[in-house]
UniProtKB/TrEMBL annotation, chain B:
Keywords: Cell membrane, Membrane, Transmembrane, Transmembrane helix
Record's bilayer topology term: Multi-pass membrane protein
Entry protein name: ABC transporter permease
Location of this chain's protein in the cell: Cell membrane
InterPro entries xref list: ABC_transp_permease (IPR001851)
Annotated source species: Sporolactobacillus shoreicorticis
Domain of life from the UniProt record: Bacteria
Entry-linked Pfam families: BPD_transp_2
Regions crossing the membrane: 12-39, 59-77, 84-104, 110-130, 142-161, 197-214, 243-266, 278-303, 323-345
C-alpha cells in the first residue's frame, strides 16, 4: 500500500516536472538569439515599486513611450527591475550593467552611492541618476553618469499660487516624504507661492519619514484636515496615496477638501470624488526620454548635471485644470513668465525662504 | 531504542525539506496560473547563484546577516524565549558599529575594526538585556517587550543619525577604510559583488552557539531552563539569571548581524523609514533550521539564495519579485504546519507496515 501511494506521488511529481520543463525550453531558446546589437535601456525602481502612481511610474512611462517611438519591445528593449529593499539597488543595477544595457537609470537619490560605486567599477557603462549628482572622491561629476535634477521649487511655487488663491479657510498643508534637501525644495517653493498671493494663509508642513507608507500619509492628512486645512500638497510618492484616501473619505461625507498631486498629473487618482485640485508635474518621463534619445544618438550626456525647470518644460502644473478657477490660472501664467525670465527666484532652502518672506513684506 | 531515535531524527529532518519542496511547487503552480514560466524562473535562480560569481558572492553576502539573525533567534528559542526583537538589536548594532568607526577614524585597522564589531555586539547585547531584565524581574512577556524595543531602535537610530551623523542622501558618512570589512580581493573574485569578510564572523558565531549551548555547563543550564523552567529551578538553577543571559547573548548575535551590514555591505547606515526585515527573516531561518546551528546555516543559505535569485528571476524570467516573498511565506507556512506533514507521512508508513 505504502509503495503504491509513493509510486503515485512520484509519478505525479514527474509528470508535473516534465510539463513544466516542456514550456521552459521553448522560451529560453528565443531570448538568447536576440542578444547583441539592439539598443537597450533599463531602469531600477526604488522600494516604492513601478506602480507607485508617481515618481517610478513616471520614469517607466518615459521609457515605454521612448520604446514605442523607436520600435523597441518592453521586457527586452526597455525594462525595469524592482527593488524590495535598499540592499537590492546594487545587485539590480549591476545585473543591467552586466547585461550590457546601453543606459541604466537609478530612480531616486537613495541610489546615489550605489550608482557612484558601480560607475567607478564599470567605467564603460552608461548610467543615469534622478534627483542626485553622482560624484567621485574629489566631488567631481563622474564621466559615465548623467545626473538628472529638477527645479521642483518652480513647479511647487505655481501650485502654491493655486492653493493660496483657492483656499477658503486660509489654511493649507504640505506633506513631504522624507525630510531632505530635495523635499525642502518642494516645501519652500510651495510655501513661497502660497504666501506670495495670500500673505494671511497659514501653512502646516509635516514629513511622513517615508515614500512608501500610505498609512502614515493618511494619518497626517487626517490631522491637517481636522485642523482646518482645505488643501494639502502631497509630495510623498506612494505615501501621498494615503492623503488621497483621506480626502476621498471626507468628500464622501460631504466635506469639500482638495489634494494637490505630485510628479504626475494625478487628476484620475482623485476620481470619482474629484478631490485633485491640480498637480505639480515633474516630467521625469520627459527627462528620461530626452536622455535616452541622446544616448541612442551617441550623445550620452555623461558627466553633465542636467537641470530641468519651467523653461525646459521639466516641471510645471498639470495639463488637467478643470478644478482651477480662471483667475488662478491667469495668475499662475503671470508668475510662470516671471520665473522663466528670471525676475523671480523661488527659494529652495529654509534660509532662502525666510529671506524671501522678509522681502515680501 | 536506537532505532526509534533514528526514526525521529529522520522525521524531524524531513519536515523542513518537504516544506521547502512544497513551497517551491506551490510557487510554481502560482506562476503557471499567472502565466509565467516556473522552470525558467527556478532555472535562472540556480544558474545565477552557482554559475555566475557575482550572484554567488551576493548570496553569501546576504547569508551573513541572515545567519546571525537566525542564530540569535535560535539561541533564545533553546532557552524557551521567543526573541522577536532581533530586528531592533540588529539596528542598534548597525548604528553602534558605524558610529564607533566614524568617531575613532584615526585609529589603525587592527584596533578599529575589532572595536567597531564589538561595539555592534555590545549595543545588541544591551538591547537584548533590557527585555531580559524586564522578563526576569517583572515577568513582562519578552514577545511584547522585544517588539516594542524594535520600534524604539528604529526611531532612535533615525534620530541619532539625523542629528549627529547626517550627510547628504539620508544617511551617515561612509566609514573609514580602517573599519571596513570589504575586501577588493573578495570583490574581484566575485565580479565586484559586495561579499566581505563578515562571513568569518558569521561562521565563528555559528560555532560559538554550538559550543556554548552543547559543550559548556552554562549552556546545559540554558537549555534546561528552556525545557522546563520549574524543573531547572528545583534543580537549583537560577532561572532569572539564565533568562537575562540568554536574551543578552541573543542580542549579541543580532547586534553583530547589524555590524556586518554597517561595516561590510553598506559601509554606512541609512535613515531607515521601515524595518530592514532581516530580523524577521531571522525568525523564519531559525524555524526552518530547527533551531540548530547547522540548520541555521543551511536555511540561511536557502533564504539568501531565494532573495538574490529572486532578483535574477525578475530580470531573466520576468517574474515579479513579490512572488519570491510569497514562496518564502509558503515555505514558512509549511514548516509551521509541520504537524500535518508528520501526520501524512505517519499514515503512509503505518499503512505500509500492514
Amino acid at each position: 500500500m505504502f509503495k503504491k501511494r509513493m509510486a503515485v506521488l512520484v509519478a505525479f511529481v514527474v509528470v508535473l516536472a516534465s510539463v513544466l520543463a516542456g514550456c521552459g525550453n521553448s522560451k529560453s531558446s528565443g531570448s538568447s538569439a536576440t542578444k547583441k546589437a539592439a539598443f537597450k535601456a533599463g531602469m531600477v525602481t526604488d522600494t516604492g515599486g513601478v506602480d507607485d502612481k508617481s515618481f517610478n511610474q513616471s520614469a517607466w512611462e518615459g521609457l515605454t513611450s521612448f520604446a514605442k517611438d523607436n520600435g523597441l519591445k518592453k521586457g527586452s528593449g526597455v525594462k525595469y527591475l524592482q527593488s524590495t529593499q535598499a540592499s537590492d539597488y546594487s545587485p539590480n543595477l549591476n545585473t543591467m550593467v552586466h547585461q550590457n544595457y546601453d543606459i541604466v537609470y537609478g530612480i531616486g537619490f537613495l541610489m546615489q552611492s550605489d550608482i557612484q560605486k558601480i560607475a567607478q567599477q564599470n567605467p564603460k557603462a552608461h548610467l543615469g541618476i534622478i534627483d542626485a549628482v553622482a560624484v567621485d572622491k574629489n566631488n567631481k561629476p563622474l564621466k559615465n553618469v548623467a545626473s538628472i535634477t529638477f527645479k521642483e521649487q518652480q513647479g511647487s511655487f505655481l501650485v502654491g499660487v493655486v492653493a493660496g488663491l483657492t483656499t477658503k479657510t486660509n489654511k493649507v498643508g504640505f506633506i513631504g516624504g522624507v525630510n531632505s534637501a530635495l523635499l525642502k525644495k518642494f516645501e519652500n517653493g510651495f510655501k513661497a507661492g502660497v504666501k506670495t498671493v495670500n500673505p494671511k494663509a497659514e501653512i502646516y508642513a509635516q514629513y511622513a519619514g517615508a515614500f512608501d507608507a500610505p498609512d502614515k500619509g493618511r494619518a497626517i492628512a487626517q490631522t491637517m484636515y481636522t485642523k482646518g486645512a482645505d488643501i494639502i500638497y502631497a509630495s510623498a510618492g506612494n505615501t501621498g496615496n494615503g492623503v488621497f484616501t483621506e480626502a476621498k473619505n471626507r468628500a464622501k461625507n460631504g466635506k469639500k477638501v482638495w489634494v494637490i498631486g505630485v510628479d504626475k498629473d494625478q487628476h484620475d487618482q482623485g476620481m470619482p470624488e474629484n478631490v485633485t485640485l491640480t498637480s505639480m508635474v515633474k516630467r521625469v518621463d520627459q527627462a528620461i526620454y530626452d536622455v535616452t534619445k541622446q544616448t541612442k544618438a551617441g550623445k550620452f550626456p555623461g558627466g553633465k548635471v542636467l537641470e530641468f525647470g519651467l523653461k525646459e518644460n521639466g516641471v510645471g502644473i498639470a495639463p488637467t485644470t478643470d478644478n482651477v478657477s480662471k483667475k488662478a490660472l491667469s495668475t499662475v501664467n503671470d508668475y510662470k513668465k516671471k520665473i522663466i525670465d528670471g525676475s523671480l527666484t523661488v527659494p529652495t532652502t529654509d534660509k532662502e525662504y525666510k529671506e524671501y518672506l522678509a522681502n515680501l513684506k | 531504542m536506537s532505532r526509534i531515535l533514528k526514526k525521529i531524527n529522520w522525521m524531524t529532518l524531513l519536515i523542513p525539506v518537504v516544506s521547502v519542496i512544497l513551497g517551491l511547487l506551490c510557487g510554481a503552480v502560482i506562476m503557471l496560473i499567472i502565466g509565467y514560466n516556473p522552470v525558467l524562473a527556478y532555472q535562472s535562480i540556480v544558474e545565477s547563484i552557482f554559475l555566475q560569481p557575482y550572484y554567488g558572492g551576493e548570496t553569501i553576502r546576504a547569508m551573513i546577516p541572515l545567519m546571525l539573525a537566525g542564530i540569535a533567534v535560535a539561541f533564545a528559542f533553546r532557552t524557551g524565549l521567543f526573541n522577536i526583537g532581533v530586528e531592533g538589536q540588529l539596528l542598534v548594532g548597525w548604528f553602534a558599529s558605524v558610529a564607533c568607526a566614524i568617531c575613532f577614524d584615526h585609529l589603525p585597522k587592527v584596533i578599529l575594526l575589532p572595536m567597531s564589531i564589538t561595539a555592534g555586539g555590545a549595543a545588541g547585547a544591551l538591547w537584548g538585556f533590557i527585555p531580559g531584565l524586564l522578563k526576569a524581574r517583572f515577568k513582562v512577556h519578552e514577545v511584547i517587550s522585544t517588539i516594542m524595543m524594535n520600534y524604539i531602535a528604529l526611531y532612535t537610530t533615525a534620530y541619532l543619525i539625523k542629528n549627529f551623523l547626517y550627510t547628504e542622501g539620508e544617511r551617515t558618512p561612509t566609514i573609514p577604510a580602517a573599519a571596513s570589512l570589504a575586501s577588493t580581493f573578495l570583490a574581484d573574485l566575485t565580479q565586484g559583488s559586495r561579499l566581505h569578510w563578515g562571513f568569518v564572523v558569521a561562521i565563528i558565531a555559528v560555532f560559538a552557539m554550538w559550543f556554548g549551548l552543547w559543550k559548556t555547563t552554562k549552556g546545559y543550564e540554558l537549555r534546561a531552563v528552556g525545557f522546563s523552567p520549574d524543573a531547572s529551578k528545583y534543580a537549583g538553577m537560577n532561572v532569572s539569571r539564565n533568562i537575562m543571559l540568554s536574551l543578552t547573548f541573543s542580542g549579541i548575535f543580532a547586534g553583530l548581524g547589524g555590524a556586518m551590514e554597517g561595516l561590510g555591505t553598506y559601509q554606512y547606515m541609512t535613515i531607515n523609514s521601515a524595518f530592514t526585515g532581516i530580523g524577521f527573516n531571522g525568525i523564519a531561518v531559525a524555524l526552518l533550521g530547527l533551531n540548530t546551528p547547522l540548520g541555521v546555516v543551511l536555511s540561511g543559505a536557502l533564504f539568501a539564495g531565494l532573495q538574490t535569485g529572486g532578483m535574477t528571476m525578475q530580470s531573466e524570467a520576468g517574474v515579479p519579485v513579490e512572488l519570491i516573498q510569497i514562496i518564502i511565506a509558503l515555505i514558512i507556512f509549511f514548516v509551521g504546519s509541520g504537524y500535518v506533514i508528520k501526520w501524512a507521512f505517519g499514515r503512509l508508513s503505518r499503512k505500509g507496515h500492514k
